[in-house]
Amino acid sequence: MPVPHTITTAVTDGAGNWVAGGQLEFFLSQNDAVSWTTPAAPSVTPLCSAFGGGTLLLGGASTSVSGQAGWAYSTNGGTSWTSGNTLSNGEALIGAVTWDGAQFVALAGSAAGTVPSLYTSPNGIAWTFVGTLQTTSTEPAGIAHGSGVYVVGTNGGTVRVAATLAALLTAGDTSLGTGGAAVASLAFGNNTFVGVDSAGHAVSSKTAGASWALENPLFGTAAIAGICYVGGATHKFCAVGANGLISTRTGG
Q1: I need a labelling partner for 62 at 20 to 30 A (CA). Which of 17, 48, 68, 177 fits?
Q2: Is the pTM of the predicted complex or chain greater than 0.85?
């Protein structure tokens, strides 16, 4: 998928339907990423994505209401989308989102890399404010759920790990050992968390976020913008970045 701009996020429903997007692009594949189309984009500049409960969800900034967070959801494999905007506290964007098995959990804030507000939604339609993550020298920048814990990445190259959303609000930072590069995205699959960052690093944890291992670079030193779990027999993860770069790796 060679394009002139950064692809910030990609997601699949595991049934052959894929969505990928960025600031100026929106792509859809309904044949398991063999070929892509460029349909009319929903009213959101996508920064993050997730799948759960039969719903594909994009989060980011609204393109229909200036200065407000936006999101779009599809329950038919990306064929059609319903868009929403304006969270209860008026945040400007949704910077990260995950599915925890029962609901979507999103981080929202005033700007990219500053997303301390925590929201939940059972279906991507209406959102409930949970609380504000503590402010430290790093700001939340990615979220994933698995193995009974939530993991939040930060723009300082650290992660915060907690078993509940209430505990996540006050969780402390643990270094990933990547030199402080901003975590761009996190994903979970096959009992493994994988995180990617702005300096091209990939890290993984098979210990519910307690310890992390540095993986081989996916795009050299080029920034990685997003990662998702693909699944399948080989338990692949898919990362996306600048100029439409896509890389897959086997996890677990």
Answers
A1: 17
A2: yes
